Amino acid sequence: MRKLLYSILFVAVAMFAACDDYIDITPKGAITVDSAYTYYELVVFPNRTYWPTSFALLTDDSYAREGNIIGNENTSLDGINFTFNENANRKELAQNNLYENAYMYILRYNIIIDNIDDSYGNDDIKKLGKAEARLLRAWEHFVVLNNYAKAYDPATAKTDGGIVIMDKYDLEASPNKSTVEETYQFIMKEINEALPYLQEKPLNLGHPSLAYGYGLKSLVCLFHRDWQEAKDAAEKCLSLNNALVDYTTISKVTSNTDYRYTGGKSGNPEVLDATTASVGFTGSIAYNYGQISPELTEMFDQVNDRRYSLFFVQSDKSSYAYYYDFGSGASIWQTTATLNRFYYATVGLRTAEVMLIAAEANARLGNNSAAMQYINDLRIKRIYGYQAEVAPSSQTDMIKLIITERRKELLFGFHRFWDLKRFNTESEYAKTITRVFPVVNKEVPQKTYTLLPNSRLYIIPFPKSAREKNPNLTLNTDE
User: Fold this and answer.
1) What is the dihedral of CA 324, 327, 332, 336, to 10 degrees?
2) Residues β-bridged to residue 323
3) pLDDT of 183-223, one tens digit each?
4) DSSP for 349-415, written as a single string
5) Helix, strand, coil abundance in the chain, percent, nearest 5
6) How far apart are CA 244 and CA 82, in angstroms?
7) Terminal C-alpha separation, the chain
8) How confident is the prediction for the chain on average, in pLDDT?
9) Which residues are CB-neighbours of 384 under 8 A, at least 6 positions away?
C-alpha cells in the first residue's frame, strides 16, 4: 500500500513542481512526500468525470437516436433504460466507470486526510487540506448513494440499504454497507466539520470555496428534507456568490464569448465547483447523451428562453444525422455552442441550482412569495422580455412550478434522475413516465413503454467487478 501512496504522491509532485505558484511558495528542494503543501495540492484533481451510461436515458428529459436503441433493449444499459425494461439482467452487464471513479476519488481524499497531519509544514495548510478533502469526499459519497441506493425516505431510511462508507485508506478492506440514513449522517458530518476551515477565495479554482461548501450542504439538506437547514445554507452560499450569467445579452455563442472556462477573465461565475467535468459534452458522447426529449422540448419557449435557443437545435443537417432522428420531436445539443466557447457545467453546483434549492426550501416551509422571488430572479437572466410572476397560492403548485424550472435549468448530469427518485417518494409529485417508441422508424412496431415511480430501475446495481471484490456489497434491488 505504501508503494501505491508514494506512486500517487510522486506523480502529484512531478505535476506541481512545474507550477509557478507552487515554486513561488515552496523553496527549492522542499518538495517531498512529507510536505503538507503537497498533500494540500493533491486535493486539486481537474476534470473529475462521471460517465452517464448507467442512468442518462432513464428519465423523461432524455432521448436517444432510435438506431442506438432498437435491438439493444436487453443487451445494453442504454437500451434497457430507454425502454424501461425491468426484465433485463442488469447485474451481469458491464457498466461504465462511474462507481469506480467515485471510489478512486474517495481513495485520493482518504490518502490526504490520513496523512496530512503527520506531514511537515504549516498547521493551517494541514487543516485546510483536510477540510477540502473531507468536503469532496462527502460529495463522492453523495453521488454513489443517489445512484446506487433508494432515495431518502424518512419512513424507511434507517433500514434501506445504502452504500459502503470509505472513511480511511485501506485497500484490503471489504466493508459492509451502511444504511441510507447512516450515509447521510456521515456526509453531513463531513460537510459540517469542513466548513469552518474553508476559504472564501481559495488559492486557485481547483480548491473548493466556502460558497461551494455551503452550496453542497444546502443540496444534501434538501435531499434529506431538512428544509430550514437547506434554506439557511443556500442563503449563506448566495451571500458569498450569487452571480448569474445573463443569457439574454448573448445573441450567439462564439469563440469570443465570455464564460468559456471556470475562472479568470473568461470564467463562468456561476460555477461553484470548478474541478468537476461536464458530463458527456465532448465528441460522440455529447451527441449520444446530449438530447432532450420531445416532452421537455415542448416545455420551453423555444424562441425567448435562451436556455433552449442558445444551445439546442432540431436539424436535418448531415452533421447531426448519425446521432439524431430529425422528426422525432427531440432536440439535440449544439457542441459548437459550448466546446471552448461556453462552460456549461452539468455536474457540480452552480449558483442557479442553489437559487432553486432556496426556492424549494422556502416553498416547503410555506413561504411561496420568497420561493417565487428566486424563480423570477433566475428567469429574468434566462428569458427575453420576462415579466415577474406572482407565486401560486398552494404549496403543491409552487413546488410543481419549481420542479418544472429545475427541468429547464438543470439539464443533463444527475439532476433529473435524482429528482425523479426523490419526488417519487411523495404522492403529490410522483410521476409515471410513458414513452412511445420508435417515432421515425416505421419498420419497427411502435410500443408504449412505462416507468412506474417505484420501479427498481431507479436503483443502479453495483457493478459486477465491485461485487466480486467485496462479497459484502449486496444489491439494493431485488434482482
Assistant:
1) 80
2) none
3) 999 999 999 999 999 999 998 878 999 999 999 999 999 99
4) -BHHHHHHHHHHHHHHTT-HHHHHHHHHHHHTTTBTT----PPPSSHHHHHHHHHHHHHHHS-STTH
5) 45, 5, 50
6) 34
7) 35
8) 88
9) 248, 303, 304, 305, 306
For 268-305, letters b (16+ CB in 10 Å) and e give bbbbbbbbbbbbbbeeebbbbbbbbbbbbbebbeeeeb
Q: Three-class SS of residue 437? A: strand
Report how far residue 31's alpha carbon sits from residue 16's, in angstroms, rounded to the nearest whole number. Answer: 9
Pairing of strands 331-333, 312-313: antiparallel
Q: Cα separation of 453 and 461, whole Å?
A: 17
User: Cα–Cα distance between 346 and 262 in angstroms, integer?
Assistant: 13
Please, which pLDDT band fits residue 15 given cuts at 50, 70 and 90? very low
Residues 208-234, buried b or exposed e (16+ Cβ, 10 A)?
Answer: bbbbbbbbbbbbbbbbbbbbebbbbbb
Query: What backbone torsions phi and psi does residue 383 show, to the nearest 5 degrees?
Result: -120, 125
Please give the residue that has the higher pLDDT: either 123 or 206.
123
pLDDT in the model for residue 317: 76
Q: Report the distance separating Cα 350 and Cα 262, nearest Å.
A: 11
pLDDT tens-digit map of 317-336: 767 777 889 999 999 988 77
pLDDT at 280: 37
Sign of the CA dihedral with 246 first, then 250, 252, and 253 last = negative
280 Rama sector, left if φ>0, alpha if ψ -120 to 50, beta otherwise? left
Instruction: For residues 293 and 47, give the distance between their C-alpha atoms in angstroms, rounded to a whole number.
Output: 27
Of 383, 375, 362, 310, give the one whose Cα is nearest residue 341: 310
Q: Is the peptide bond before 46 cis (omega within 30 degrees of 0)?
A: no
CA distance 229 to 215: 11
Residue with cell 432515495: 151
Q: What confidence tens digit (pLDDT) does each residue in 75-116 have?
A: 999 999 999 999 999 988 867 789 999 999 999 999 999 999
pLDDT computed for residue 172 by the predictor: 64
Whether residue 385 is predicted with pLDDT greater than 60 in this model: the reply is: yes
What is the value of pTM for the model shown? Answer: 0.91
Q: Provide DSSP, 53-67.
A: TTTTTSSSSB---HH
pLDDT single digits (tens) 350-368: 999 999 999 999 999 999 9
Between CA 317 and CA 330 the distance in angstroms is 15
Cβ neighbourhood burial of 43 (10 Å; 0-12, 13-18, 19+): buried
C-alpha cell at 316: 436535418
